[in-house]
Design goal:
Low-confidence stretches: 199-205, 237-387
Shape: elongated
Distance between the termini: 18 Å
Bound molecules: adenosine-5'-triphosphate, magnesium ion
Largest sheet: 9 strands, mixed
Mean pLDDT: 77
């Protein structure tokens, strides 16, 4: 590419409305320009980087067996009404009507659309596992769009959706994506952590967020310096009931039951227990549907299964009366207050002798029965992980110390269970010809956000230092004295040789002062720079500089090309 015929509108001044460094540098290096709040033009250099990252994502998704397709960004309201999210999603969902007065929205995510496709096309267990992905534009009417591509309203996401016959098959689809995500972010050379995450408004049973570590990150995460424990602070808080008990070696009795992943598992467990007139508090905090049910007096435990499949946000949106209506009178819900408050309420009830307790968790052997609430859940024993500081003991292992980080959420993997397939009635026939509900997972990566996060981690006072895999060009060839025909000929020759061996080269042929060229080239952050000048050329040499280290080598022209290729 000839710089003089290309379009890289660099800017010297730091734009006043850009708070974080990646936003400043993406504007200054001419990668993006704002059209409206949270809505951007991707200029040629920005687009090249984005396409590079997309290519890595595609390769790894394909390698993991996912199948690419493309869904529309405009989605009919009916599907969202079917899933219940039309009511619950809130103002981030941009809604509008067509000329016939039908309701539509701009897709912030595609669970409904893909589940609708699958329920029409998939009939048999033989057709699964399946995992569909797309790289597509999303719209979320974010309350505070900011930081450029990091929190836009219109943004590009890779989203994938897996479909499996049962929960354990879904687990292995999840694992594949989890591994693929590791490869994707490793290939970009990013410093990241996969952390246990809250399932937020998407709901489901288990999830991990992929966090690029950066001070400007909006999320707080903790990780252990010894074991692999890492969590979003929100989620870490929810884990703490188990952690506190474990850390203090309380004589809680582990259940001999299988892993209880959902409230249904907990209900099944109760159903098998000897006491048939149980007064029970069922609490499933983590992997389950995030519900807590207080069962007063005799209660048919079958109803738990049928009635308690409400996600956190559904509970949050509903009033107590709504909940009573949905669940029937014997069941009351404690809303999504902070865990600390929940624990207080539980403790109160326990002291009054009103309830028994079962604690669910998302990890094998981390379930406890016979919890003594007064002893184990006394609020003053409860450590709020939000107050944790660097150096505190790890809740998972004995020797580790916690470290606190700020992180940018670049990817997110969820086990959805049957939340959407149930709501939209996506079923299949099993080997015995019986109808079964499909198990789903969903997996997102913010494309623009990852490129921004990479810049957040890779820059210096002069500009961007692109990791090679997502750099807009691999190499810049800078011709210093454009009036010197020998220099221009040698530089162009080098440019052509490099291009023909598959290196992407930006040939800076502009009639500008060397200072201007060096400044621009540093700002746009191309990993390798070759400078061809009259002086060096007289000795048959060019200067090769590595942007990241500043390392400079004078090499004979012939060697330079070979050296790079
Ligand atoms: P956040 O917590 O930052 O609002 P999210 O949890 O709402 O993100 P997901 O629904 O998990 O986002 O979407 C998958 C991925 O899409 C995120 O991990 C992130 O990389 C990206 N993403 C989400 N919202 C935005 C946005 N407003 N701008 C750019 N990328 C985004
Ligand atoms: Mg969000
Ligand atoms: Mg999030
Ligand atoms: Mg998320």
């Amino acid at each position: 590419m000839f710089y003089s015929r290309y379009f890289i509108p660099t800017v010297k001044e730091i734009p006043s409305d850009a708070e974080v460094i990646s936003h400043q540098l993406m504007l200054r290096s001419g990668m993006i320009r704002k059209l409206a709040a949270g809505i951007y033009n991707y200029l040629p250099m920005g687009l090249r980087s984005i396409r590079k990252f997309e290519a890595i994502v595609r390769e790894e998704m394909n390698r993991a067996g996912a199948i690419e397709m493309l869904m529309p960004s405009v989605q009919p309201a009916e599907l969202w009404q079917e899933s219940g999210r039309w009511q619950f999603y809130g103002k981030e969902l941009l809604r509008f009507k067509d000329r016939k007065d039908n309701d539509f929205c701009m897709g912030p995510t595609h669970e409904e659309v893909i589940t609708d496709m699958v329920r029409r096309e998939i009939k048999s267990y033989r057709q699964m596992p399946l995992n569909f992905y797309q790289i597509q534009t999303k719209f979320r009417d974010e309350i505070r769009p900011r930081f450029g591509l990091m929190r836009g309203r219109e943004f590009i996401m890779k989203d994938a959706y897996s479909f499996d016959v049962d929960s354990s098959a879904a687990d292995s689809s999840y694992e594949k994506m989890y591994q693929a995500y590791h490869r994707i972010f490793e290939r970009c050379g990013l410093n990241f952590r996969a952390v246990e995450a809250d399932t937020g408004s998407i709901g489901g049973s288990s999830s991990h967020e992929f966090m690029v570590l950066a001070d400007s990150g909006e999320d707080a995460i903790v990780s252990c310096n010894t074991c692999r424990y890492a969590a979003n602070v929100e989620k870490a808080e929810a884990r703490n009931v188990q952690s506190a008990a474990k850390a203090e070696q309380l004589p809680l009795q582990k259940t001999a039951t299988p892993e209880m992943k959902t409230i249904t598992d907990v209900a099944n467990f109760l159903r098998m227990s000897a006491d048939k007139t149980i007064k029970t508090l069922v609490y499933s905090s983590s992997a389950g549907e995030h519900v807590m049910a207080l069962l007063r007096g005799d209660h048919d435990l079958n109803e738990i299964k049928l009635k308690n499949h409400l996600s956190w946000d559904e509970i949050e949106m509903a009033t107590e009366t709504d909940i009573q209506k949905i669940t029937g009178s014997p069941v009351g819900f404690l809303g999504p207050v902070g865990l600390k408050q929940k624990v207080t309420v539980i403790a109160d009830l326990a002291v009054q002798g009103m309830i028994n307790v079962v604690i669910g968790a998302n990890e094998k052997d981390m379930h406890f029965t016979n919890a003594n609430l007064e002893r184990d859940f006394a609020p003053d024993r409860f450590v709020d992980i939000r107050n944790v500081v660097t150096g505190d003991a790890c809740p998972r292992c004995d020797s580790g110390k916690l470290e606190m980080w700020r992180g940018i959420e670049v990817g997110h993997v969820f086990k959805l269970g049957t939340k959407y397939s149930k709501a939209l009635n996506a079923t299949y026939l099993d080997a015995d010809g019986k109808e079964q509900v499909i198990f789903m997972g969903c997996y997102g990566i913010g494309i623009g956000r990852t490129v921004a996060a990479a810049i957040e981690q890779n820059h210096d006072e002069n500009g961007i230092i692109f990791p090679l895999p997502i750099a807009p060009f691999h190499c810049a060839v800078v011709a210093l004295n454009t009036k010197d025909s020998g220099v221009m000929a040698a530089a162009e020759d080098m440019y052509k040789k490099l291009e023909s061996s598959g290196i992407e080269v930006l040939f800076d042929d502009r009639d500008e002062r060397p200072g201007v060229k060096f400044k621009d080239n540093d700002l746009i952050g191309i990993p390798l720079r070759i400078v061809v000048g009259s002086k060096g050329l007289a000795e048959g040499k060019v200067e090769v500089k590595i942007r990241a280290t500043g390392e400079v080598q004078l090499l004979p022209i012939e060697d330079a090309v070979e050296h790079i290729c």
